[in-house]
Amino acid sequence: MPAEPFDIQGEGISAVGADAGVLVSFAGAGDARMFRRRAHRMHASGSSEPIEMLVAEFDGVRTYLRRDACGRLQVVVTRLDLQP
Amino acid sequence: MAATVQIREKNGAGQVASDKTAGTIRFKKADDAAVDLNNPLVVPSSLTEYSYQKWLRLYVAGGSYTQISNLQVYSDGASGYGSGVKLWAKTAAAYATPAIPSTANDPPQLSGVGMADMFGFTAGAPLDMDNLNAGPFDSLGVPKDIGNYLVLVMEVEVGTAQGVKPAETLTFAWDEI
User: Fold this and answer.
1) Under an 8 A CB cutoff, do B21 and A40 touch?
2) What is the pLDDT averaged over residues A56-65?
3) What would the pLDDT profile of B83-104 be if each residue is shown by its tens digit?
4) What is the ipTM of this complex?
5) Is A39 on the interface with B (CB under 8 A)?
6) Closest partner residue to A7 among B1, B21, B70, by Cβ?
7) Cα dihedral angle (B56, B150, A68, A64), rounded to 10 degrees?
8) What are the chain B neighbours of A38 within 8 Å (beta carbons)?
9) Are A18 and A67 in contact (CB under 8 A)?
10) B25 in helix, strand or coil?
11) How far apart are CA B116 and CA A45, in angstroms?
């Protein structure tokens, strides 16, 4: 099951992020933003792996969502600035 | 909807670009993007051996997006090249024709400043790729280059085992809305 790219509609507290299997939104007042963290990983084999995470940040706490190669949704909630 | 971002190698005085997004960067003693066995680095009998610089930059080829920011590059933190082979890195704001650094300096220098170990840049401590050419980068004027140039130099030291070395992994990351 290939990962679907995330789409973000709206800005700030009104932002909504989604792919084929997940919908992410904010609730309540706060400092909020949503963005995609993307990467190209150039592998030793000569291939390139595109990576994408949806990042929803609310009052400094970030929720990172990423689908693995099997389509499973990985969710990490942290204050850290994580790279793919 | 997303930006189409490529990793491009620049060569020659005219910074001729080659898309390396799904490719390999071959360090050699020639300024070209070909992945071949021509112009190999030679294990030195004294001092050290440097490759030609490799100049890399992110390029937005198209797609749909509002802005791109927070450009980063990093390694997996562990060199697989083996003893005697090092990979040096530094960013630059403007292009210069690739050259072989002077072996009078170890580590090699770029614009008079020593380069850093590429394997010291990891996901936890990446190399900033938009501090010199600052983002965010909007979609006006696409296709276009964005961010800093990443300049890489490979070093081969005295006593290094001969042969083609295993390839390594490099990750370019950015934020996009």
Assistant:
1) yes
2) 97
3) 999 999 999 999 999 999 999 9
4) 0.91
5) yes
6) B1
7) -140
8) 2, 5, 173-176
9) no
10) coil
11) 25
| Integer CA distances (angstroms), A15 to A35, A69, B37, B149, in order | 9, 26, 51, 33
Residue type, A29: A
Say which of A7, A38, A40 has its CB closest to residue B7.
A40
Q: What residue in A sits closest to B67 (Cα-Cα)?
A: A35
Question: Backbone phi, then psi, for A13, in 5-degree steps?
Answer: -65, -20
Kindly state whether A7 is in contact with chain B, defined as any CB-CB distance less than 8 angstroms.
yes
Strands B116-117, B85-92: pairing is antiparallel
Which residues lie below 8 Å from residue A7, measured CB to CB, with a gap of 6+? A17, A18, A19, B1
Mean pLDDT of A34-47: 88
| Terminal-residue alpha carbon distance, chain B | 10
CA dist A48 → A44, A45, B6, B13 (Å)? 9, 9, 11, 28
Whether residues A40 and B5 touch (CB distance < 8 A) is answered with: yes
**Structure tokens belonging to residue B121:** 């840049």
pTM above 0.80, yes or no: yes
Beta pairing partners, B73? B127, B172
Nearest-CA neighbor of B88 among B154, B156, B168?
Answer: B154
Using the predicted structure, report yes or no on whether residue A48 has a pLDDT greater than 90. no
Closest CA to B89 of B146, B149, B5, B139: B149
Q: Supply angle C-alpha B114, B147, A75, rounded to 5.
A: 105
Q: How many CB atoms lie within 10 A of CB B129?
A: 25
Residue A4 is predicted with a pLDDT of 67
